[in-house]
Design a protein that fits this description.
Layout (H helix, E strand, L loop, with lengths): L11 H29 L6 H8 L3 H13 L3 E3 L5 E3 L1 H9 L2 H20 L2 E8 L2 E8 L21 H8 L21 H14 L2 E4 L6 E9 L5 E10 H4 L3 H18 L11
Amino acid sequence: MEHWFHTVELSTDALDGIVASQHGTQSVDRAAELLRLVVEADTAMSFTGLTNEIGLAKSTTSRLLQALARNRLVTRDRLGTFVAGPLFTGYAARHDPVDELVQLARPSLECLGEHTGETVNLSVPRGNSVVQVAQIESSYLLGSTNWVGVDVPAHCSALGKVFYAYGTIEPPTGPLERRTARTITSTEALQRDLEAVRRAGYGLSDEELEPGLVAIAAPIRFPDGRVSAAISLSGPATRLKPQLGKLATLLTSKARDLSALLGYPARKDGAA
């Protein structure tokens, strides 16, 4: 019987090349894992801690750390523990952190827009104001307002309530501007609303900024726990109110994912 398959013979040089390639990839993976441990750690890590965490021989860990240090990816502080190297510091100094945040958040914003069809915003605090830094447009004709650069009173926006509730910006003490019949205008009522934000893990503006407009927002935490950004969904009350619970669950889940990407350990807090 004639066999339709044939044997491929590899030369010794070819086999050595494959082994070397696999070994090289393995070394890169191990170095990358060490770098991740150093960069994501809450505190500087010791050599022993890194060796135990990655599960490699001390000699291998030492060799990889030396390579990372030579390339300025890690450095040893005065206590002999390892921290992120000057390459990271130099990169951060040359780039606007807001631009970096927008780039990191963009896939999550697009995913929210695709799943809901509603307007999605990313915001950061500036003093006691809320600044919209990115937006995914609604796929509906009704609800496709561009909020980037628009000055909105924080007390009647879902994003503003999130920053108030988590202490990012100071809550107002004086009279509150009334924008609609549903706008909260007393500081006592606002404080009660902010307590509800902390319990639920998201903020809600229910026709408080514009009649017929509903928005929900969730906090994004940075590695130290600060809520330094937030994301929101907004649209007509007729579309959002019937599915508010489902949308809030989706939004807070995406906010937790973004917080984790930024280095915030989710185990510290049930909410984002």
